[in-house]
């Protein structure tokens, strides 16, 4: 059971890391003029809402499975996302893109760092539970 | 080079007097003694061989001869410098040679008055008989004093003659000569050094020696190697040492000094201006004479000096730098507390005879730098017998295409220079060749979006609208059905009558309309779709989507959009919000829909002009966003009534549709290495880090940008700026490479403005070269932007703080050596800055709080001021106040009369005489103020039967009498001078409250009003803050 949970979490966090990384790459491209601003905005804005949703799901997942620690780690970001969404500030603003480019990048770097920490924890728990699962299986084998 | 600030301070301490004391005898010294010294002084010249011909010095005649033969010297006549009619003659008579021009007399006091070190500087100017101003750049000293660059070495020891000799050697004339030997008509005789310097800055610098035959005396100028243009250049900047002196000098002392020649006085006056503030503690009297305060009553006077120094620069009406002296280091830039940047008005209206020349490179293609894409301009230099040219911005050596090739003459300039406006004019327009075009130019599409809700009908707004093709009724708000564009958009010339009939029928169609709702958002979307379809239909099928096209959408909105997508709430003017952290949100667009729409419209090159009419809250903050990001404009007619405002709307709409407009434009400002434009302010959208997308741009719009230094220390001596107004051929994922702009006539052109500015190491110099108009323009944009994220008060405070910091920094420059006491000092160039700062704080977008201006007016004024060119902004900030009654009563001729009329009065109520009739003109409206005891005849003549009525309901029109006709002629004349907006007349009688208050009295910026400072208080406040220790 535990193992399945962690595998799912692992996949989710992997997706989040990838999405954030992708956004950073796009912003960097924009900065160095490899991509135009309209494409930047449409590409980023396309994945922002799914990212928020997935992040929310991850958070909810921890809550319903009583992983308090993980829930408390992820909930601040969820709240932040919800706040942005309510204020309708979650989307990348095409018109003022260059004024806020650095802030947007910084935000995403911080997010990336956060996701990586969560990723590390989840990986650890995944390995741990896999180990436990396997050793349990071993034990079970031995019991026979 | 490296010693910037310390260097400056050393100067006062330098024993500068010594050389002078010794001078008289040494004047006669042969060159041989001074030669080496000169070399050392001209630090820029590396080799500086002490040069052979020295022995010839005692008599200059031989020198001339030898020079003429030995060097590729130019005939002196080439510089049509009147003061150097014939060098030989000036040189010959006195056996002393070149030095003769500084006979002892000018230094009578050298011994006793060390201060008069300054003199030599100005002398050539002030003493024409001396005759060789060429060698001595008289002006530069005043304006350029990069003292740090002066090696202190020569100062102490060298014989005085060095000072004189040095200019000769220092000046990079050789190079410059070679580049531009011919006298440019615009060369200013008094600033030869500069002229040359700038032209030569980019000179290919083949080792060209010689030059001023006369002046060079016996010197063989050091060969200037190709890498040295800058060094030579730097030489050009060198003020002859004496110049440096006034810098650190005590002005008072100077005045007392033993009659220093004019030049030095000039220098002093330019040093700073001061205002004595002698407040007696405890007394109520502020100690300022209000009459002595500086006021820009002459309007915005352009500073000619700089234009003369760089005659090849584009006219300041196109590009104005906040300071014409670029700091050479980041630390220096950080001490300049004012904004560092430029205000660009690429399509400014040029007076007749000064139109921008059009250049057509038919076959060779437009000449641009391979690397940085800079367009060819007067500052590029040709080398290698004309086969190569060096880019002045990135200094890459480019090949000259075969068709463009021209031989260089002996001095290194192209022989075809006269036929090449792009090499002689700072502003040119290139015709884009066919390969720059994606498709043939199309006529622009105008789309009118008219609000027909009940309030619009009632106010008569519809009646006064002008032209409109067809009507589309958007019935289903969620799923917009777009009819075929062919049915909807018509060719104006073909179907003029249809349009007119439609327009006539429009009011009657909707006269029974009781619908109070406005479905603005859906209509906007539909209009957008129609325009895009229309545009794509004319294209081949494979380019159907998102092909850039151009057009203009004019939105006439009378009520708050209340239905469908983009509906807005009545959020405006909530008193409680003011003063809280949420205050600024009122000034931001409420719904992101508007920003997204604006981005979409910009993408397809449609500009939006918003005409808003409502007397109720219409949320201009949101609607204006459409104009802001599409390069459009907001026109706001509060409480529109067609009877009174009809004229204004008609004139402004006509202007909007008929002024010269460039469609589908993009603009980029390139600048030399080491500096970079980091932020842009105005009505446009940034498409990449430095590319402004302007679906429409015209003469009434200006854009501002701020500079920052990328390198800690700039090594170049000159920074070049090039504004290119162009359009991108296609928006794809590659950096834009092809650019053009489409003038209304349908031809694609690229307009290029180029300017150069010197790099300096001295803060004082930066302040001296400041341009307060450009600074105020940038300040206003920054402050308005700040109101979008902060409280009004914070925006005002930060503005004030920056002014205080700047003045404090400036004061610190002089405080050490001067006993400034209670005086407030400021550079002459920034004389009006405090006043404009005050006016800005009291302008509509920034003034007061809730009650001082309705939110819509605030926002629309903000959007307008973000786009205003410098001159118009200054006029709006400090409008003119003119007394009319005397002119009306006098029977004099109008022409003379009009000259007198330019006499502006300070904007204070004390200048309003109740017996007078005054005109207040801020460029957007006229306010005519009738004094209480104005003679009844005048009022009767001007107003006819209405003269006793309430003036708010009275329109001014021409009556059948001389006085009324005269007034109308005067007003017409003023309108002609400033056509961007139609100045509607508002009449107000003295004591007629509250109209007098908000129309006029609150705009008299020098008076205290409510919580706002008057001029005197403001100055005192600033002065106090300047004096406070940090």
Automatic annotation (TrEMBL), chain A:
Pfam families annotated for this entry? Answer: Cornichon (PF03311)
**Topology relative to the membrane:** Multi-pass membrane protein
Q: Does the keyword Lyase apply?
A: no
User: Which UniProt keywords are given for this protein, alphabetically ordered?
Assistant: Membrane, Transmembrane, Transmembrane helix
Q: What is the superkingdom listed in this entry's lineage?
A: Eukaryota
Which GO biological-process labels does this protein carry?
vesicle-mediated transport
Q: In which compartments does the protein localize? A: Membrane
Where's it mainly located? membrane
Query: What GO CC terms are in its UniProt record?
Result: membrane
Segments passing through the bilayer: 52-80, 112-134
Q: Which family does it belong to?
A: Belongs to the cornichon family.
What protein name does the entry list?
Protein cornichon 1
Q: Which organism is it from?
A: Morella rubra (Chinese bayberry)
From TrEMBL, chain B:
| GO MF annotations, alphabetized | SNARE binding; zinc ion binding
Q: Where is the Sec23/Sec24 helical domain?
A: 771-874
InterPro entries linked: ADF-H/Gelsolin-like_dom_sf (IPR029006), Beta-sandwich_Sec23_24 (IPR012990), Gelsolin-like_dom (IPR007123), Gelsolin-like_dom_sf (IPR036180), Sec23/24_helical_dom (IPR006900), Sec23/24_helical_dom_sf (IPR036175), Sec23/24_trunk_dom (IPR006896), SEC23_SEC24_subfamily (IPR050550)
A GO BP term, please? Answer: COPII-coated vesicle cargo loading
List the biased-composition ranges (Polar residues): 199-214
Q: Which residues form the Zinc finger Sec23/Sec24-type domain?
A: 366-404
* Pfam families listed in its UniProt record: Gelsolin, Sec23_BS, Sec23_helical, Sec23_trunk, zf-Sec23_Sec24
Q: Subcellular localization, per the record? A: Cytoplasm; Endoplasmic reticulum membrane; Golgi apparatus membrane
Region of interest called Disordered, as start-end residue ranges on this chain: 1-159, 199-226
Every copy of the Gelsolin-like domain together lies at 901-969
Which family does the UniProt entry place this protein in?
Belongs to the SEC23/SEC24 family. SEC24 subfamily.
The name this protein carries in UniProt is: Protein transport protein Sec24-like
